[in-house]
Structure formats: structure tokens, C-alpha cells
């Protein structure tokens, strides 16, 4: 087993299950989970940020507000915030999204492995289009496999759910195309370094055992696959 800290990244298009996968990794391997959203909240004094922008309550850019990707690579085009002290290792998702971000990340740490989630386009489109949220808390529901108890109503507050503009069917295809174009050079970069590991499927729970096996070869797990 490797004795050094493990540094890894989980890549995948919107709706691919990166968040769920990262929760499983954190529980099973005791790794610290980082995301650009976390850096945003800490840098700007806490609070929730809408997807993509720290802006108004519709997720639109407000005057003088930076795009999340800009903050993720530094206020002035520099590097991400300093990485925290960790005992076993760390991993991130939603970053890097572009080649420029990957190059910025190179300046602060050397990655040990990159996990890429490959989910069919139609699966992603259906999954994202079925997603509704409670704006105040950020709770996410999926009308296909995680619906609220009462249609259109948040389980905890009884307040109405909304569908974000970028989750509407006509916007989903554009989001997926944009991701594909931006991610291609990032994926090629990590593939050329021999640290890219791709996993294909339609369900996170079916992909997870293969990810668990890969990570177990790099760092001892603290939970068995069945315990997660």
C-alpha cells in the first residue's frame, strides 16, 4: 500500500452522480472531500451559492460577482486556495473542469489518480430534467427515484419546489455539450499521464464496487464495500 497521501479527482458530466460517489469514497476511505463550492463559501464568508454563480436568487450573475470557475482558479487567475492538512488524502469533484484549471491544479499538487464517470447522454438528460430543488436549503429531489412525499412540495418545510432553469430539458442538452467540449482536453491530459480510470454505467451503485476496488489498491479502506 502506498504510504503517501492520496490525491484524486472525480470527473463527470452534470447529473453523473459525482456527489453521491464522493460521499461513498469519503465514508469508505476516510478521505477529505473538497469542492469548488466549498472554496466559494469559505472565501466569500459562508452561505449557499447557486449552481454556476454566486449571484442573485435565480442563479444569475450579479454585478461585480465572479463566476465559480474564476474563483476556483483564484481571484486574479492564480491558483486555488491552499489545500488543508489531511491525514490520509483528499479528493475533489467539479474541479478541474477545464484545461486551464487542470494546469492551475498542477501548480499546487500532483494527482495520483483521476476517476472519470461515463454515463449515457440519454440517461443524463432524463435524470437532470427530473430534478427539482428546495431553493432555501438546496435539497434536491428526483421525480423518478427520489420524489418528495407530496408532489412539488419540500418534505421538511412544506414549501414549493422549483426546477432550475438549467435543469429544464431544453437547457440540459446545451449543458452536456458544453461539458463534453471543455472536459475532452482535461481527460486526454490525465489519460496521457496514465492516471485516468474510466467507469461506465447508468447507476452509481453499480459503478461503485469497481471504484471501491480501484481505491482499495491505493489506500486501505476503513469500511467494507457492504458497510457503505
TrEMBL record:
InterPro entries xrefs = Adenylat/UMP-CMP_kin, Adenylate_kinase_lid-dom, P-loop_NTPase
Its recorded name reads KAD4 kinase
Classification via SUPFAM superfamilies: P-loop containing nucleoside triphosphate hydrolases (SSF52540)
Q: Which organism is it from?
A: Haliaeetus albicilla (White-tailed sea-eagle)
Pfam families with a match to the protein in the record:
AAA_17, ADK, ADK_lid
Task: Give all residue intervals belonging to the Adenylate kinase active site lid domain.
Answer: 131-166
Q: Is Kinase among this UniProt entry's keywords?
A: yes
* PANTHER family reported for this sequence: NUCLEOTIDE KINASE
Q: Which family does it belong to?
A: Belongs to the adenylate kinase family.
Identify the domain of life. Answer: Eukaryota
Q: Which UniProt keywords apply?
A: Kinase, Nucleotide-binding, Transferase
Alphabetically, the GO molecular function entries are: AMP kinase activity; ATP binding
Amino acid at each position: 500500500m502506498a504510504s503517501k497521501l492520496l490525491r484524486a479527482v472525480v470527473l463527470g458530466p452534470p447529473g453523473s452522480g459525482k456527489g453521491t460517489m464522493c460521499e461513498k469514497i469519503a465514508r469508505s476511505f476516510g478521505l477529505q472531500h473538497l469542492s469548488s463550492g466549498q472554496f466559494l463559501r469559505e472565501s466569500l464568508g459562508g452561505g449557499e451559492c447557486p449552481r454556476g454563480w454566486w449571484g442573485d436568487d435565480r442563479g444569475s450573475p450579479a454585478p461585480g460577482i465572479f463566476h465559480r470557475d474564476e474563483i476556483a482558479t483564484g481571484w486574479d487567475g492564480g491558483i486555488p486556495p491552499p489545500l488543508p492538512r489531511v491525514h490520509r488524502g483528499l479528493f475533489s469533484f467539479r474541479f478541474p473542469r477545464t484545461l486551464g484549471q487542470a494546469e492551475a491544479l498542477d501548480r499546487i499538487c500532483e494527482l495520483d489518480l483521476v476517476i472519470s464517470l461515463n454515463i449515457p447522454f440519454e440517461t443524463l438528460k432524463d435524470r437532470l430534467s427530473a430534478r427539482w430543488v428546495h431553493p432555501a436549503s438546496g435539497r434536491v429531489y428526483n421525480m423518478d427515484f427520489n420524489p418528495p412525499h407530496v408532489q412539488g412540495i419540500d418534505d421538511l418545510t412544506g414549501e414549493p419546489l422549483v426546477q432550475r432553469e438549467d435543469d429544464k430539458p431544453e437547457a440540459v442538452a446545451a449543458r452536456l455539450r458544453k461539458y463534453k467540449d471543455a472536459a475532452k482536453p482535461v481527460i486526454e491530459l490525465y489519460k496521457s499521464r496514465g492516471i485516468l480510470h474510466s467507469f461506465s454505467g447508468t447507476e452509481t451503485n453499480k459503478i461503485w464496487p469497481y471504484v471501491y476496488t480501484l481505491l482499495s489498491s491505493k489506500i486501505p479502506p476503513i469500511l467494507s464495500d457492504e458497510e457503505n
